[in-house]
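Extended Data, panel c. Modelled sequence:
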Amino acid sequence: MEPMRTLLGQERGRRLPIDGRLLTAGVLTGAAVGAWAGRRTRAMVGRDPGTGTRLIDWERARGIAINMNRASALTMPERSRLDAEYRGLVARCVPIVELYAGSTLPEAAERTFVFDRVDWINANLEAFKTLFAPLEALRDDLETGRTVASQLWGGVNQAVLSAELGLLLGYLARRVLGQYDLALLGREPVTAGKLYYVEPNIRAVERALALPADEFRMWLALHETTHAFEFEAHPWVREHFNGLLGRYMEFLREDAEQLKGGMRGVRVFVERARNRDGREGSWIEALMSPEQRELFNAMQATMCMVEGYSNHVMNAVGRDLLPSYDAIARKFEQRQRQRTVSEQLFARLTGLNVKMEQYRLGEAFIDRVFAERGHDHVRRIWTGAEQLPTMAEIRDPALWLARMDAMDADRVAIAAPV
């Protein structure tokens, strides 16, 4: 994947791709959201002796999320009509994005689908299962463990994590407007990504903000089509992010092993927080080891570019394409600033506020490079992982520009005759 950014902030909190920071919040600090949810969560997670000591009761998580969103179902005639409508929008966007970005995008229109909220929950729950698979591998250890710590770790986390994931999915199902879904950590052969549009949420926003439906939906299609371009016109991006995500999940597995040690394991995280030495960052980052934080920053930098460039493209072509573009952007910005206290708290506890920052930082970086060097220089970020900026460079684009200049100078020196 907030995407992207000003507009997409929370309204677009989509899953592209599922963010490691959300998983960190769920696995290492699930108790925080459990405490916030309070009585409601405890009522939802009554123990069921048939669930054993699995890390997550996926059916329970799904039931919680669906119960929050049953009233949004689409009829089959609606699905057929809307599939055709959104596929038409994507078909219009593809040549526009290709022309601006300078690369060919594989056919995406036929992989475009309209969703209701339950559809979105089901699709994303499957993705969460894949991402949590390394941690679920601990199930056998937990079931055979005989220590008090291992039993507490298994039981408490199943209850809290199942409810937390259900609440998180149920909440996001009401907020997500569009999503580019590219399977991560999946088995070969790699399948092409899909574009989802959550119609009940799109209708609700159109009504609440009095937006012109045709322009607003084209605006959303531009953003999601650009995401497809980023991953499918440049296959190395998926491979790069997949590698980062796989290593990150292994770190989480190691942390889960630590927690099996009871209070001794908890003290590891307490010490990490104490040893931050005043470094800036989210509360989630405070619980990471230095190696985890380095990997987290690499993932965040990649997502900043994915989200920032998508916003840049949308802004660059949208104003000429859509008469109401500025009005739509202004209304979304105002809506983002008017989030309720509970929404702000939820975003902070789950890590979604970190994702929102990606929109702002990524877009600011792209706009700065574009203003100083032009679009050809911006395109360099899609030529390989070594061209991606670090988080430090995203916050100070001059550092990235200087590194690119140094790389160019080295190439010239190597090519020059001795």
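Strands lie at 112-115, 178-181, 194-198. This feature is highlighted in the accompanying rendering.
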